[in-house]
Amino acid sequence: MTPYEKFVKIVDEQQYFERHRDVLVALSGGLDSMTLFNWLYQARESLNISLSVAHVNHQQRAVSADEAKALQEKMADLGVPFYTAKFVGSFSEEKARHFRYDFFEKIMVEHQLTALVTAHHKDDLTENFLIRQIRGSRLRHLTDMATVQAFGEERQGLSLIRPLLAFEKSEFDAPDYFEDASNAENDYLRNRVRNLYLPALEKENPRFSENLASLTDEIQKAMSIVTYSARAYATAEKIDLIEFSREIDDLQYFILQGYIAKFPALEVSKAQFDELFHIIRREGQYFHAISNDYNFIKDRYHFYIEERSKATEFETAMTPYITGDFQEIDLPATGQIVIRKRQPGDRIQVNGIDKKLRRYFIDTKVALKKRGNPLIVVDDIVYGVLDVVTADLSKSLKHDKMKRTLYYREKR
Question: Which UniProt keywords apply (predicted)?
Answer without folding.
Answer: ATP-binding, Cytoplasm, Ligase, Nucleotide-binding, tRNA processing
